[in-house]
Amino acid sequence: MDAKDRQIIRALQKNGRMTNQDLAEAVNLSPSPCLRRVRNLEASGAIRGYSADVDGAAYGLPITVFVRIRLQSHNETDVQHFERRIMAIPEVLECHVLTGATDYQLRVMVSGLDAYEDFIRNRIHPIGGIASIDTSFVYGTVKKTAVFPSLD
Predict the structure, then answer these.
(1) Which residues, by range, are in coiled-coil regions (predicted)?
(2) Which domains does the chain possess?
(3) What is the pLDDT of residue 33?
(4) What residue ranges of the chain have pLDDT lower than 50?
(5) What is the pTM of this model?
């Protein structure tokens, strides 16, 4: 991937709905080579897809929660079981494997505190093998972006 490909990606991260003509102008290419580069980035998996950035509160999910989980055991079977179960839970938007005292951090969205309690009791606890759950509720967001920093 070269600097021009990164420029294309950053432009699409800012506005994934821009036309190829507008994209080509933004990155100083003619439309045909620009479209060819976009198609190559898609084919290689560098661009995995396109989506809408939706306001959670407007959608009906005003509460974002970061949940840190530590497992009791780290054998392959228990880890695979936990990860497979987490993949099937729709409230979990992201699950990251961490270094340090916590094994996983989940980003969860729910409609309210009752929904969060239900999530913990009926989605997380039944997984089993969990040593600890630590929860932080988001009460404000200072910065949220999907645009990667420039490497130039």
Answers:
(1) none
(2) 3-44 (1.10.10.10), 56-137 (3.30.70.920)
(3) 96
(4) none
(5) 0.87
